[in-house]
Design brief:
Elements: E1 5-8, H1 14-24, E2 30-34, H2 35-41, H3 43-51, E3 55-62, H4 66-78, E4 83-87, H5 92-109, E5 115-119, H6 127-132, H7 139-152, E6 157-159, H8 165-171, E7 177-180, H9 199-205, E8 209-212, H10 214-217, H11 222-232
Parallel strand pairs: 1-2, 1-8, 2-3, 3-4, 4-5, 5-6, 6-7, 7-8
The structure holds cytidine-5'-monophosphate (C5P).
Length: 234
C-alpha cells in the first residue's frame, strides 16, 4: 500500500510550516497548503516545502470563470504542486478547463499532471444552508450530483467527508481518487470535527488519501504521531 497520509499544514507562519515539513517529509505522502498559509507565506512556502522532498497539495479551492481557473491551475502546475482543489459548483466547463490546463501545462513542462480534486458540498453546509443558496436541500443528493458531474468533466479525484466515501464508491468509477479529511485516531483532544472516522476505517471505506491536521501537527511529537497513524493501517 502506498503511504496515504497528507498532513494539513494549518499554521500561518512559514517557519512553523517548514519546520513540520522538514520533520515529516520522510514519513508522509504530502503536505496540504491551504488559504491561510498560502495567503500569509505566498508561493515561496510551496517551493520551500518541495525542497524538503515533500509533495504539495495546494488547497485553494479555485472557483471562477473557466479561463481564470485554467490559468490559476497552470500557475499551480508551474509551482510544481501534486494536487490542487477546485469547486465542482463552478460547473462542467470550469472543471474541464481546469483538467485540460493541468494536462497541457504538465506536458509542456515534462512533469506528471497533478491531481485536480473537486470539492462538492462543504461539510459546513447543511440542508438549510443549501436551500438558502437555491440548491437542492438534500446534501447527499447534491454531493452525488456534483461528484458525477466532476467525473463527466474528466476530473480524476474528489475531496469528500469520511461519511460520504461509501456512497461515492458505489456510484463512481473505481479509478477516482477520494481524498478524505475528518480523520481522528481517538487519542486526541476533542475539537470541531464532528463526523470522523479513524484512519483504518476511512481506508476500509474506500479512501485513497487521508488529510490529517491537528492529530499530527498539534501532537507533542508530530513525527511519532504520523508514524503511529501509518502503523495503525497495517
Ligand atoms: O485538523 P484537522 O485534521 O481537522 O484538519 C483537517 C483539514 O482538512 C483542515 O485543513 C480542514 O480545513 C480540511 N477540511 C476538513 N473538512 C472538510 C474539508 C476540508 O476538515 N470537509
Amino acid at each position: 500500500m502506498q503511504n496515504p497520509v497528507i498532513v494539513a499544514l494549518d499554521v500561518s507562519e512559514a517557519e512553523a510550516a517548514l519546520r513540520l515539513a522538514t520533520q515529516l517529509a520522510p514519513v508522509v505522502a504530502a503536505f496540504k497548503v491551504g488559504s491561510e498559509l498560502f495567503t500569509s507565506a505566498g508561493p515561496e512556502i510551496v517551493r520551500k516545502i518541495r525542497a524538503t522532498g515533500g509533495s504539495v497539495f495546494l488547497d485553494l479551492k479555485f472557483h471562477d470563470i473557466p479561463n481564470t481557473v485554467a490559468k490559476a491551475v497552470a500557475a499551480a502546475v508551474r509551482l510544481d504542486v501534486q494536487m490542487v482543489t477546485i469547486h465542482t459548483s463552478g460547473g462542467l466547463e470550469m472543471m474541464r478547463a481546469a483538467e485540460e490546463s493541468a494536462q497541457k501545462t504538465a506536458q509542456q513542462l515534462g512533469r506528471n499532471t497533478p491531481l485536480i480534486l473537486g470539492v462538492t458540498v462543504l461539510t459546513s453546509m447543511d440542508s438549510r444552508n443549501l436551500s438558502e443558496i437555491g440548491a437542492p436541500a438534500y446534501v447527499g443528493g447534491q454531493v452525488e450530483r456534483l461528484a458525477t458531474l466532476a467525473v463527466k468533466a474528466g476530473l480524476r479525484g474528489l475531496v469528500c467527508s469520511p461519511l460520504e466515501i461509501a456512497a461515492l464508491r458505489r456510484i463512481l468509477p473505481a479509478s477516482i481518487q477520494l481524498v478524505t479529511p475528518g480523520i481522528r485516531t481517538g487519542n486526541e483532544k476533542a475539537d470541531d470535527q464532528k463526523r470522523t472516522l479513524t484512519p483504518k476505517e476511512a481506508m476500509a471505506a474506500g479512501a485513497s488519501w487521508l488529510v490529517v491536521g491537528r492529530p499530527i501537527y498539534a501532537a507533542e511529537n508530530p513525527r511519532a504521531a504520523a508514524e503511529a497513524i501509518l502503523a495503525s493501517l497495517k
